[in-house]
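TL;DR need structure tokens for one chain.
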Amino acid sequence: MIKRMRTMSSMKIMITGATGFIGSALVRQILADMSDTELILLCRSEIKLEKEIKDHHSVKVIELDLNFEVPSGLGVEPDLIIHLSATVDYFGDSAVRITNSSQTKNIMAYSKTLLKKPIFIFASTLGAVDRTPWDKLETRLTLDSPQNPTSEYGKGKLEDENIVLNSGLDHILILRLPWVIGPGMRGHHVKQLVSLAMKNKPISRVNWPGHVGLIAVDELSKKIITLMRSELDTERFVDLSSITYSISIGDIFGRALQLTGHKYFQIRIPILLQKIVYTFRGLLPFRIRALLFDVLLGETQSCGFSAEIELALEQVVRDIHREYMDTDVDVFITGCSSGLGWQLARLAYTLGYNVFGVDLVRPPKEHYFKSFVAAELTLEANLDTLVECWSSESKAQETILVNNAGISTRDGELLANHNTDYVKRMIQINFEAPIAIYTRLITKMKLTRVINISSSSALMPIMDFSIYGATKTALHYWTLGSTGISDTKFHSILPSGMKTALYTQTTRSGNIKGALNPETVARKIYKYVGREKTVIFIGRKTWITFFMSKFFPQKINIYIFKLLSKRFK
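>> reply
TL;DR here they are.
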């Protein structure tokens, strides 16, 4: 076992490619987790560095181009060098190979001029191993698999690995990276797939069976820090399988379709067709093989989206949306910690909006929110504080208020069993608070849109929902009455019952059969609002209820809804 690394508290770490996708994420993680560490960042220009990184007291920036020889007199003696700088282009020509090899040779030559040999971590790629075109695909690639790079990029990285391994340094770690995803990534692999899904291209509608390994960039950064704090053994290649997830190209396309607002529908490739294609696999271009066959290293985590991969994918979708946005959009959402409000906040984040939220309890994750306030909406003082907070932090030209907060009857109880205070609170939260927030906000800023979440209960003559239905009816008609008075556009949303805590509270049996998915409802709300609709019905039960109220005699409506109301008791 090689000796333990030098004490982390006094360590000097040099990072190349610090302005890149992985580099910037790693720098942020080191500054957050290792406050006593000194960072030396090599980059072509410090302009691309985030201001909080560039101005940090632990950071020293050295501007130089690694395509040229690194001068020995930099005045620093790093204990650890992390070489991330590279041109990443799997389908690039020999110029990519030459550029990357030149940078690796130059940083290695510099490391040999240091008084003490540094620890060296090199970011390589799974493409340095790869499969031959006629590989039988019977086993997954491993760290010991024959090296058969099929791209100029992969060949260059394999050459770089040998340069590092033959450098004479004692402490070397090589990371053969699969697909790394997260915020700020360039236009490679997953980002290209998401862009195709966003444009609803036919290729995204096929459930391609080929699996790839995905690592969230934040998880990779944490892994690198763990390696820096650990003992080094004689194994030079790092096993990343514990943070790598196996996901099919089809599943990536499918989730991207949902996150970009499209209806999920994909065509499965028949098994017989897959077998025929497998027979001629060696004749297929690499891009087609990647769609159909697994390209994985080692025993990765089980298939599916982990919380880390899901978040990273949402961040990629957000980045793409923001690239196409002409102006910032701020969205203020009440009741955002669960149910529909939570899905509205998540989707607003992926759409590239800045999300401001308020709820009685804190949300499961707060990274979706630019600002969150925990407050009871029945208190006037809280409303004043809330609006002051939102208006002072909002800087966008386009602003959207979503009044979603609401409460209904509790645990299937009859209305007669609820005390007066609870009924008053229902009226305050469901109807009075949305108006109060709106009237306060318009004195502080110009609201572009107001989206009020009503309910199909507004159309139902059910006795035990009469107060709840009345508050939602009042909100609906207040929305209609406000339309056209000012430049603010108003929208009233009447969804059918959803699989939320609010819906399950209305029935003792917990029967939610036929209830809508809140994520689906959230997508439809933003979709239909974009079409400038004032009244939006979501769910066939809302439409049925609407037509019954319009065309059926009142006595028949009352009789039918008395029968339907039995399911809530």
